[in-house]
Every structure is written in structure tokens, then in C-alpha cells.
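Technical annex B. To support the medicinal chemistry partners, we prepared a structural model of the target in complex with flavin-adenine dinucleotide, based solely on the information shown next.
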Amino acid sequence: MHMAPIIVIGAGAAGLAAARTLADAGREAVVLEARCRIGGRIHTLNDPAFGVPVELGAEFVHGRPDALWRLIHDAGLTAYDVPFDHMQRHSGRLVTIDDYPARLREALRGIARIRHDLSLAEYLRRRQNQNPGQRELVLQFVRGFDAADPEQISAKSVAAEQEGLANMEEETQFRLLDGYGALMRHLTGSPAPLDVRLRTEATLIRWKRRVVEVHCATPRGEPARVRASRVIVALPLGTLQLPASEPGAVRFEPDITVKRRAMSRLGYGSIAKVVLRFREAFWERPAAARAARADESLRNSSFLHDPTLAFPTWWTARPVRVPVLTGWAGGTYADRLIGLDSQELLVEAMRSLGALMGRRPGALRALLEAGHVRHWSSDRFARGAYSYECVGGARARRSLAMPIEGTLFFAGEATDTMGQASTVAGAIASGVRAARQAMGADT
Ligand SMILES: Cc1cc2nc3c(=O)[nH]c(=O)nc-3n(C[C@H](O)[C@H](O)[C@H](O)COP(=O)(O)OP(=O)(O)OC[C@H]3O[C@@H](n4cnc5c(N)ncnc54)[C@H](O)[C@@H]3O)c2cc1C
């Protein structure tokens, strides 16, 4: 019996994992991708000036999630440990935070006991007796790591994440030696190449039970239509949340009203990321610690935080010793940078770094050799960074992941229900799950 092909929309980690699962099971899959590249929010540049892959999107492997590590092994890729030590600007000095995960857990003590959900900001306002340092640590974590707005993010979801922090303490963070892009290439190419149609932007999904027609805009402006018996929608939450009238929105006919409520219970954060290459690793010199008013040498530092800066978080490439620094503005920090072009973002990042390192911008600029920057909210096909749960959103991901009439299936980091949402691991697991659901609908 000929099995009709399954359409996958989006060639990010979720869509590619879905298509690979289908292809490995002998099913024909067609992947429609709006960009001229695969990977979505994974965007690795191999700029020889940097000496390491430049990760403008995802960079770290958090712990040891099964599906992701299986892929890393299948692809024959090398992952290496990233030292997880942190320094923080405190009363003008850059001080070492001895045990970051334990400090955070301490600052969040009691959050697991809340009965009615409320926003994290409201939770902190009600904890009158909490010391300001701990409050700041929590706010920074939620803005930086979750890319979230503290006024929106569910305190209960932060509590659940906090349980996972024990893992963060035990489990290492890794980077891939060849970058995440190598993993995406492996998914696309091996064992047999997937049918990925680049520059093919889905604009309308017209569907009824077991019949789907996806209308697309193609490079030459010609509309194209692809037909199948079912579709796996692996689009970013930010795209799905767009009102139908907004440019870049993907319309469903009939609309997927049943999903709209779930989507409204999820937030979609913002991140601006900059990767800078300097002539030398100036922060490793003994004088750098004095200039930065640090309580110890920065030679072995990994993550540096100063919440007063536009780019409040920076990290080195350690353990690899290259003169590269990455700057990160997440959540409300990134919101303040929306609308700046690449050059303006670079200037803002250099200003933050100068203040962090106690260097005049001119002196720092003289050392800068190259830089890459990306604001993910300005990216037409991402519309932001990743999802988080808003107040009352505990069941939103589950409901977003539910298929509709054995015809529409949903993948993507926002649909992960196994505690890995917002990550590459969650995206991959969701793609595998959606593909299995779609194949299961054959019977
Ligand atoms: C700056 C940044 C840093 C991150 N760091 C980490 C990290 O260190 N570790 C980690 O695990 N995770 C990290 N993440 C999160 C991780 O990148 C994402 O969770 C994951 O890549 C999402 O994969 P996805 O397939 O769900 O979505 P996407 O990668 O967004 O894929 C969706 C695809 O759909 C395409 N598309 C959009 N609209 C259309 C359309 N109309 N028609 C056709 N195609 C369309 C997009 O171009 C894209 O390729 C980071 C994210 C960002 C932004």
C-alpha cells in the first residue's frame, strides 16, 4: 500500500527530528522551510577568525537528555564539559559566586509550597523578608536563563524548574566541538538525505480530516501547494501566536481555535546575543582583574554578571582558550534592545563590556577583530527566543502537543511535556513524539 507523504513545516531541530524519524521508518516526508538554511534557532557560523564555532542561537547541551545524546553519538560528534562558575557584580566589585545552583535554590526556597499560581514578580514582592541579593539572583536567572518577563512567568513553573536545578548541580553543561549546526546537518543527511525544501514559506494550511493542503510562498514569488494526508507543524510558538492579519502569520483553515487558549498561556521570551573576537584575551591578564575590580583573576572565569548593564551576562569560551567573549541580554533586557540594528547592538554590547571590564570603549574597540550579533525577536522566522509558562499555564504545553483529528500534529520546543521545553533536547524529543503520533494515526 502506498503511504501518502507527511508534510513537516519547519526545519528546526523539532522538524528535522520528526522528518528523520519518519524517514527511518520508511515514510516519505517533505519538509517545508522558510529560510535559506536549516536549523532555525540553531545557527552555527563557521567563521575561521573565531577559532570556535560561533553559536548565534543554541550553544549548550544541558545535562544528559536521552534523545539528544543518542543523536550526538550517532553523529559521531564530540561534546566537552563547560565549567559552570560564575562571578557577579556586587557593591561595585566582581565577586565569585561559590555555588551558583545552590545559591539559587536557597533564594527560591519555599517557592515549591505555593498553592495558587502567581507571577514570579508577585511572589517575590510578597516575600518581604527576602534579602535583595537573593531577589536579584532570582530575577536575573528568570530573565537570563528563561528569557522571561518576571511579571508574566508562572512561579509554579519556576518551582518545577528549581527541582531540576539539583540536576544542574550534578549534571554538566556541554558544548559540541563542531557546534550544534553539525547535529542539524547529520539529521538532514544521514543515512539518506531528507527532502527539505528551503525558501518555502508556509502561509496557509487548509485541512479537513486526513487531507491537508499547505500553501507556500517560494523564492520566485510563485505560490506553491503541497498536499498530504497529515502535517506536522514544527513552527516556533512566536509564529503560531501571530494574529492571522499579521505579515508572516500562518493561517489555518479551519482555524485551530482549540490551540489558541493554550498558546495564550505561554510566553515567548526575547534574547539578544553577541559573539566577539578580540586580538588577545585581555581579561586573562593580571591587570584585568584590577580594572574590573574583581576579587580574583579572570583567567579562569566562565560566566560574568552585572545586572546594571544592557548586556548583563558574558561568558568566555572556556575550557577552550580563544580570545572570544559572548554577551547575552535575555527577557526584559532584550526587550529594551528591540528595534536596534546590528551595528547599534554591537555598540551597546561594547559599552556593556567596557563597563564590566573597567575599560574605555575606545580601548576595547581597538582590540576588537570581529563580531556577530543577533536579536531573535527581530528574526522574521523565529519572532523571539523560546517559550515559558505564564501564570495558569501548567497544562498549556500538553494541550498544544495534542493532535487534531489525526491530521494536524504539533512539534517544537514549546510542545515538550517532558521537562525539556525551551531547549534543543525538548525540540528533538517533541519531533520524535509528533512523528510517532502521525505514523500511529495510520492505523
Ligand atoms: C539565543 C538562543 C540561545 C539558546 N541557547 C540554547 C542552549 O544553549 N541550549 C539549548 O538546549 N537550547 C537553547 N536555545 C533554545 C533552542 O535553540 C530552541 O529550543 C530550539 O532550537 C527550537 O527548535 P524548534 O525546532 O522547536 O524551533 P525552530 O528552531 O525555531 O524551528 C522552526 C523552523 O520553522 C521555520 N519557519 C518559521 N516560519 C515558517 C513558515 N511560515 N514556513 C516554513 N517554515 C517556517 C523557521 O525558519 C525554523 O527553521 C536557545 C535559543 C536562542 C534563541
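Notes passed to the chemistry partners:
The chain has two domains: 2-42+181-264+391-440, 85-168+270-385.
The domain at 85-168+270-385 is CATH 3.90.660.10 (Polyamine Oxidase; Chain A, domain 2).
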